[in-house]
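SAMPLE LOG
Freezer: B-3
Tube label: C17
Construct: single chain, 101 aa
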Amino acid sequence: MLLEFTIIPLDKGMHFSPYVARMTDIIEKSGLPCKLTPMSTVIEGDWDECMALVKACRDEIAKDSMRISIHISIDDSIGATGRLEGKIKSVEEKLGREVNK
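STRUCTURE (predicted):
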């Protein structure tokens, strides 16, 4: 499963990088494959692992935020692995070049 998510502490102004940094630390320590993007984070794992990680990130932000927005998008291809990089490589093969380099 690929799970893309964004967690926003709505009561903390316009700059979220301190909160993103805290969540990124949790995500990296989980050992799940992940990719931080400018707008969200994508993780790869099974349902329980991914949902537990989103909950852990939410719980971290809830320590000092009273209102949190969470956006989740899931691509659940049963049994598939290596899709975090594999989906990009598939597009690059069709283009005949690397993208975003």
